[in-house]
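Morning run. Coffee first, then this:
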Amino acid sequence: MTHLLPTKFLPSRSSFIAAALMCLICASGFSTGDADDKVPGGTAESAGDAIRVPVTRDVWVSAYPTEVEGNNGGSPRLKLKGIQEFFLIDFDPDAIKTGGKRVVKARLHLHAESPEGIGRVTVSSVADAWVEGSATSYEAAKGASSFSWAENEIRRWRGDSADLTSVVLGNGGSQWGFADAIRKESPVDATGQSASRDWFEIPIDPAIVQARIDGRSHGFFVMDDVGSEYSRSGNTIDYRLFPNRYFSSRESNKTFAPYFTIWLASADNNNHAESNTVSNSAESVKVSRRGSDSVSPTRLLPTATSLQTEVVRENDILDLYDQPIHNNRLFAAKGEAVCIQIPKAPMEVESPAGIVATIFSMPIVAGERDPLVPRGHGSEAMLVNELDSRAFIEFYVEPRALAGEHRVTIKTQDQTIDLTIEVWNFTLPEQLSFLPQMNCYSLPEDELAYYRMAHEHRTVLNQLRYGWSGKVQQGAAPTVTSQGVWDWSAFDKRFAPLFDGSAFAGLRRDGVPIEAYYLPLNENWPMAHEQAFLGGYWIESAYPESYWQEFRNAARQFAGHIAEHHWHDTTFEFYLNNKVYFKRDRQNRWDACSAPWIFDEPVNTQDFWALRRFGVEFWKGVDEAMNIDQTHFAFRADISQPQWQRNLLDNVTNVEIVSGSLRNYQRRVMDRAAEFDNLVYMYGTANEIGTSNAIPAMWSLETWALGADGVVPWQTIGTKESWKNTDTLALFYPTDFGPVPSIRLKSFRAGQQLVEYLTMYIEISGVDRSDIGHELLVDDGLLGKMAMKNEADAGSSEFDNAKISRLEQIRRGLGEWLHQKSPAYVARWHDPRPPRRHPEEIEVIQTVH
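And here it is:
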């Protein structure tokens, strides 16, 4: 789940495209098409008639970070480069006399200016006006269009984001279609030489051209769908990241200028083509505010009245976030854990019935405090030389505790500290409404202890149990015999306790099953990938039907077995994690990774398209199983760049793990989630040790405010080295006596608990979640930003430290309001589990011909 942004590369060469000579073509004015398309008199009177249409404007723009305001409207070339560079192109619709006829076929013709050819290409309508400009070399020319601006410094692109993707590729009311470019080799002279490169014809969805003629579009957006390429020789791979693909623009020699060919037919002609892809509008939906009896007209979140009247007396007791606790007074719901830090290790803590105190030592690792070792834990004696005098105390308020004030006494070697814990009259649900998912790739042998620790902290531990080669870890999947019989005995013995909840007996949420679990299914299990893979970038021709039959059977086997055992609470996730460039990263070895696409954090259209096919086949297999109505399955995808997703995964995925780009494309992601009932997480890296421990809680709160359902730190399990050097990835610290938690794990739990407050509040008050989210993000300033060390970094969230105090203020206000309402206990206030997909309801998307 590492985050990868493309790196800028210089032009590269392709061995399989040769330069060739094309006959001279007149590129000015309108004419009938090629000789085969002409009819007597050169008029377009039948479905076979072609009109040649010149390009009247074109501009190449770039999404590369340093070029997003660049305009190349005056360049003699156009450029395609995967998700980095593309062009807008247009003809004059007023000059086309259709006579009431409709477009039934269309082509865009491009003359190559580099050795690189093109494969599959997308052509989209453009749902906003744009300006060609006359700049070159990525000049940020005022008033000209760029990736970031419809008109530089004057007008942003309209829609759901501040870039071009908000008005193309199905967004903002646009339409798109993709097609395999047709190479037209240029003839050579008598000597076998050629003076120009090849031409390419790109089929266009007729509805997209018709939209331009009808005035419902402002031109055409053209994008390379292949992006990165590779070639293979035996076990060696040559991976080429985003080759540069150049073409002549209208500013070049008119002989090689791009042009369109359009075929028209009568409106009632049966050959009239419907749009390949009908997109959803990305326009925002105005959500009305619904007030409640305790919300003022200017503030939707309740304010704690006690904060306005209490006299603050400072002390040296700190909370989880290193903020001072005023007046030695704590507040908590039933079923909630609250934490403090005190300057000296306690000798004894006296707490009343219903409040359980746990004391932790705070060892110093590389000058920082992060791991927490419970008193009496076997590792405490080993860490005696690394401990300082500070101690950490957690108070858990049991659901049976009485509401009201409770006294707690803490005795240290030289003082007695009296605390008051006010227990509010409501109880947090045992089943989670918001999911902090602790992702990992390996666990120590005592793995059950890690699951129990995560469960105790209201988080979800989820281990991916296969590696880069697709090989499933020993014992992580049922045994499949040579006769095709599935033996589940060892699998059930190991994992059934997670699914029926017995693994968590005796814990605070006793008997609640794990919320999410990765299935071992992948591109190389149970199928043998290399025996089946036929090659190519496009998955529709990459495997024989026998491969898909075996995969569907595996999905059916899992679905049927899960249903048979009534494991109804856990969401079982099919997830593809591998990436084709892992082959490059491991000595350019083809066998270093089983994925021929970028499955995790897909980049190119070929990657999204491959994910789509696997998802469709997964749901076909699940759908074949019996009695699965109460079970929960997911096709999960990790999306770092949702701006390139289009509708390719609509109604296919139902769990989407989105990077920090959720902040930039929130409307797009969450509108899709609302339409298809997706579960959405934001992923990243936990905060670095030494930064504020409020960050995990703030990240959780922000993610909920953005509309999503959970957070996913991409790696969470420490190693022995985590005890020697600070380890950002260590939320669980291994010891010889079992795992111990980090302070940051406590913060993830605090964030989860606060989201439960918010969930209860909106359910009871009727206030709209999106309005509360806006208030938290904008009014309270809790919108974070992504910090990345390099392009491969998953990124961590950063927040304004001055806003940390808002966490407790928000919690106090909500807590007082809920205390006054005293709602009856509900086991789950919101169910984040998404419905499964049905293959017959998935839209058919095909290439244009």
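The chain has a mean pLDDT of 89. Good start to the day.
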